[in-house]
Amino acid sequence: MVGKRGKVTGGIGPGLVGEVMIEVRGGVEAFLAYSALPGEEHAVGELVVIVEYLPPRTVYVAPAFG
């Protein structure tokens, strides 16, 4: 899971749990998402990379490009 890319479908920000769609098990599934860096925001549609995975459905993300 760590290192995969996903697309933000629910905004992620300080105090906000967002949602990211990630390709897994031959399909695309939704995961609860937090920013890996405190205070960082991720808008809907942004591409992110998974930097930490907490089973069963929580991920921490960072920007995929820069």
- Number of helical regions: 0
| Major sheet attributes | 5 strands, mixed, barrel
Strand order of the largest sheet: 1-2-3-5-4
* DSSP summary, beta strand count: 5
Tell me the radius of gyration: 10 Å
Which percent range describes the beta-strand content?
over 45%
3D shape: globular
Helix content: under 10%
Q: Which oligomeric state applies?
A: single chain
- Give the SSE order as H and E letters: EEEEE
Structural class: mainly beta
- Rounded average pLDDT: 96
Straight-line distance between termini: 20 Å
Low-confidence stretches: none
Can you describe what's shown?
The chain is mainly β and 66 residues long. The protein is built from no helices and five strands. The protein has strands at 5-10, 18-24, 27-35, 47-54, 58-63. A five-stranded mixed beta barrel has the order 1-2-3-5-4. A hairpin with a 3-residue loop joins β4 (47-54) and β5. The model has no long low-confidence stretch (mean pLDDT 96).
